[in-house]
Amino acid sequence: MIPPIPDPDPGRRERKRQQTLDHLAATAFALFERQGFDAVTMEQIAAEADVAKGTLYNHFPVKEALLAHQFHGEIARGAQGLAASLAERESFVARLSGWLQVSADWCQSRRPYLPHYLRFRFMSLDARTRGRDPSRSGMERLFQALIEAAQGAGEVRADLPAEHLAALLQHLYLGALMRWVAVDDDASQERSQTRLENEFAAVVDLFVHGAGRAQERA
Question: What is the pLDDT of residue 10?
Fold first, then answer.
């Protein structure tokens, strides 16, 4: 079984803060959808959300941070909704592939924003804040849950901690995503989707089987 992502019951003050963050991010994203990411200013977001500019900047120093918060909420909700169905799949490869298929669908729907989001993720990357860094999506935690379940079933090596393996898998995932985003052509949405699915299939194969030649792996 896939362990559920922890959902601690926060105190009243933290719940109110989270509601404020969600409101600001949702307001910003609605503006991005209407006007385009580059055209929207932080001043517009504050006015639309009916908060002072200082309040907005206290929570989100840049537009990319608002985008990241919105995306991370979407990823978390998707992970929670998918956990039960993934747990029913018969193998680690099937569970990981299932999640990456859903992820490919989501990435395709958010592709215009991904360059901004990925730039923010890497600019704010700091191993010292791992686990409490608001720029992190929670994807690594989901990977860790999948790996821990697979280790318990004897499907994945257990000589390395699940957290370590999840970090490596996360970097493979982000690398594939950046390769896909970097492709600048006039491919149809269907071809673009297929390309990303192929990128993610390579991630699964590389993570599970390594980079050796097929006959050597056999």
Answer: 63
Q: Residue by residue, what is the 3-state secondary structure of 133-180?
A: CCCCCCHHHHHHHHHHHHHHCCCCCCCCCHHHHHHHHHHHHHHHHHHH
Report the CATH number at residue 40: 1.10.10.60
Q: Does residue 218 belong to any structural domain of this protein?
A: no
State the pTM of this model.
0.81
CATH number at residue 178: 1.10.357.10
Residue found by looking up tokens 């592709």 in the block? 111
Q: What's the rounded Cα separation, in Å, for the pair 53 and 205? A: 47
Indicate whether 6 belongs to any domain: no
Query: Tens digits of per-residue pLDDT, 50-69?
Result: 999 999 999 999 999 999 99
Q: Which domain holds residue 189?
A: 63-212
Instruction: Say which residues have a Cβ less than 8 Å from residue 78's Cβ, sequence separation at least 6.
Output: 102, 106
User: CA 176 → CA 25, 52, 215, distances in Å?
Assistant: 26, 39, 24
Claim to verify: residue 25 and residue 91 sit in the same structural domain: no
Q: What is the pLDDT of residue 124?
A: 75
Amino acid occupying residue 69: H
